[in-house]
Each structure stands twice: as structure tokens, then as C-alpha cells.
Design brief:
The chain has about 375 residues and is α/β, with parallel strands linked by helices. The chain is about 40% helix and about 20% strand. A hairpin with a 4-residue loop joins strand 9 and strand 10 (about 235-240). Bound molecules: zinc ion. Zinc ion binds next to loops.
Length: about 375
């Protein structure tokens, strides 16, 4: 069983007993233990030579920095090794008449930091804050925007997914939520399985802590995924488009006139992609990345996690998917069962510095989903 969210759902449905659990201790250390050993690559390693990207950040708080990447375009890049306020990347667009913020981040402190940085460059009204998808690290700080009268936009399915995924955790029995994950650590049949199970336990512990220390604020403006929406901020227009892959609720922000794309978690740059979501589709995701690869050669991408990049970042995540698919296909053809194959993937040398958020949220489900796609052919 490598899709922990299913266990979580069935478990939470029966575990509503309220009990005090240890108040929000800082367990993020274990949660991002792996990422902590792998610092964010410097900007010069990727886009340092692109004149659109400013060499010096506007502000650097450690946990995140904000940098100008175009005319009225800014990227907020998180470094989880230095703090947890944002965790995901984001950014903002500033036109003559209005601004658009991107991401609700993990905490209200993260959202507040981004708004404050926007205010340091412009006083135009904020049209909206967009959650690129519903995941906690892009949405749990939404209530800051709500309290400041900023409408929160997201994919039409995002609000419901937030309610289904995070509300049941609030006030739930911590031990009951974590028990199945602890059991998997205990029952592991090999060192690899034990390590994988431990990484999943760390991740779910982190999500539980965040859900229990956040006021969930739902997006107020649903974006119809069937219709790309244009937004005119005054001399700066952007297009909001839905693409399949990471969460079933993914929206990207494209600025066609400047070849800049805020890709959300459809792009993990230099990380293993998080693919656990019930609505994640590996074939759909690879198709989306093929489309991104066909964007202009000088496109700047702001990924959901990792450093800003150009087309080389798209090429790299496509290689990661190709490698996972190639290893999985060999095992599939050799008759290795899916559950076992999910643990047998070997990280190749060239990806050894790619953070893995947790095995059962990244590589494991990518393999079981590929198996499922092949079985249904
Ligand atoms: Zn995500």
C-alpha cells in the first residue's frame, strides 16, 4: 500500500474522538530532514545569466526570498532548509492597475511576508491571491488573505479537496492518525521498506501538525478548468490555465508576452515529484511537461519547489519521470508485483541530490500509478 492518502481517509472517517494531543511542537525538522541536508541551489547555477532575473533578491528572509524575474513579475522562492513559513514557491504580478499574488503558502506568516513584499514595490489594489492547487503548502496561509479582503482564487475543485483532506485532521486523535504509518515502520520487511515507511510517517506527522495549527480558509472564487481565464492587470496580462498531473486542481499562471510561467507543483525543479494525490496522473503529467517543453526556448519557469529555471528544468523532471517509468516497466514485464516494485526503485547517481519529500508520496505512488495505467491497457 503506497498511497497513504487512502488509508488516511478511511482511518479519519472513523477516528473523530477528540483528545488533547501534543501541541504544535516543531516536528518540521524530521519532516524536512532530507531537504535539510540538500540546500537550495543558487540562482547562478540555473538562470544566473538571464538578464530578466535580478541577481540580488528584493528581500531574503532565509525561509524564502523574493526576486524580480520580469517586468512587474516577481518570484518567491522557498528554502525549506532555513524555515517553514512558506515551504512552497510563489510570487506576484504587478500591473499599472492591479496585482495578483500567487500561493497561500503553509502559514499566514508566509502569505503575510509575500503581501508585505508586494507592498514594498507597489500600492495597487490586489485583485486576488491564487492557490495553484489545494495542497496544504500552497493553501494553509489563505486566511491571511481572507482577513485582508483579498479574494482567493483556485481551481473549481480545490475548496472541496481542502475540506476532504485537511478538515478531518483537525481535532482528530493524533495517535489514531499516525498508527497505521507507525505500523508500517514496524512491519517493514527490509531496510529500504523501513526507511520509506519512516519518511511517510514523518511527512504525515508534519501535515497533521500543520492542519491542526491552521485556520482553513477556502478559496472564494472557483476557476473553471475548462476555460483558460485571462487577467488584465494594466499593461500586464496573464493567462490562468488548468493542466493535468499533480493534484487534479493544478492551475498555472502564464505571462505570454514575457515568456514567464508560474507552474505550481506541475514542476518540481531538482526534486522528485510528489505524485501521491488520488487525482495525480503520471501519463497526464508527462503530457503536461511535454507541452511545457514546447513553450518558447527562453521561458522562465517558477516551479512549485526548487530553484527558478529555464527549459533545462523541464528537461530534468522529464528525465526523472522517464527513469521511474523505465525502472517500473522492467519490473512490470518481469512480473514483480506493484507493491514490491514501489520499493525497489533505485535512485540513479545523477539524481542523488534530488530531495525526496517522502517515498510514499513521490516514487512509490508514481510506480503504482504507472502499473495501474499499464494494467488497464
Ligand atoms: Zn502539491
Amino acid at each position: 500500500m503506497t498511497i497513504p492518502v487512502n488509508r488516511k481517509h478511511s482511518l479519519l472517517a472513523i477516528s473523530f474522538s477528540r483528545r488533547d494531543f501534543l501541541a504544535r511542537t516543531s516536528c518540521f525538522g524530521a519532516y524536512y530532514a532530507l531537504a535539510k541536508t540538500i540546500p537550495l541551489p543558487s540562482i547562478t547555477a540555473s538562470l544566473g545569466i538571464d538578464s530578466r532575473v535580478s541577481q540580488t533578491p528584493l528581500v531574503d528572509k532565509g525561509f524564502a526570498s523574493v526576486r524580480k524575474i520580469g517586468n512587474g513579475l516577481y518570484a518567491t522562492i522557498s528554502d525549506p532548509t532555513k524555515g517553514n513559513a512558506t515551504l512552497s514557491n510563489g510570487g506576484f504580478l504587478v500591473g499599472k492597475d492591479a496585482a495578483l499574488l500567487i500561493e497561500g503558502f503553509t502559514t499566514t506568516g508566509g502569505a503575510s511576508f509575500q503581501m508585505e513584499t508586494l507592498r514594498s514595490v507597489s500600492q495597487v489594489p490586489v485583485r486576488a491571491a491564487l492557490d495553484t492547487h489545494y495542497h496544504f503548502d500552497h493553501s494553509m496561509g489563505n486566511s491571511f488573505y481572507g482577513a485582508n479582503g483579498v479574494p482567493v482564487w483556485a481551481h473549481a475543485a480545490a475548496a472541496q479537496r481542502m475540506v476532504e483532506s485537511y478538515s478531518p485532521m483537525q481535532g482528530a486523535d493524533r495517535g489514531a492518525v499516525l498508527a497505521p504509518y507507525e505500523k508500517r515502520v514496524k512491519d517493514a520487511k527490509s531496510d529500504a521498506e523501513r526507511q520509506h515507511a519512516q519518511s511517510d510517517l514523518n511527512a504525515i506527522t508534519g501535515v497533521f501538525q500543520i492542519a491542526n495549527s491552521s485556520i482553513i480558509a477556502l478559496p472564494s472564487h472557483p476557476i473553471d478548468p475548462a476555460k483558460p481565464a485571462s487577467i488584465d492587470l494594466g499593461g500586464l496580462s496573464a493567462v490562468l490555465e488548468s493542466h493535468p498531473g499533480h493534484s487534479g486542481t493544478d492551475i498555472i499562471v502564464r505571462v505570454p508576452e514575457q515568456n514567464v510561467v508560474y507552474a505550481g507543483d506541475l514542476l518540481f525543479n531538482g526534486w522528485y515529484p510528489v505524485a501521491f494525490d488520488d487525482k495525480a496522473t503520471i501519463s497526464g503529467w508527462r503530457g503536461t511537461l511535454a507541452k511545457f517543453a514546447a513553450f518558447e526556448k527562453d521561458t522562465i519557469f517558477v516551479p512549485g519547489h526548487g530553484q527558478i529555471c529555464g527549459q533545462e528544468g523541464i528537461a530534468s523532471i522529464r528525465e526523472v519521470f522517464d527513469d521511474i517509468a523505465a525502472q517500473a516497466e522492467k519490473m512490470f514485464k518481469a512480473g514483480v508485483p506493484a507493491a514490491e516494485a514501489a520499493h525497489r526503485y533505485v535512485v540513479p547517481e545523477k539524481f542523488k541530490n534530488f530531495p525526496i519529500f517522502a517515498w510514499g508520496f513521490t516514487i512509490g505512488p508514481a510506480i503504482t500509478k504507472l502499473y495501474a495505467e499499464w494494467q488497464h491497457k
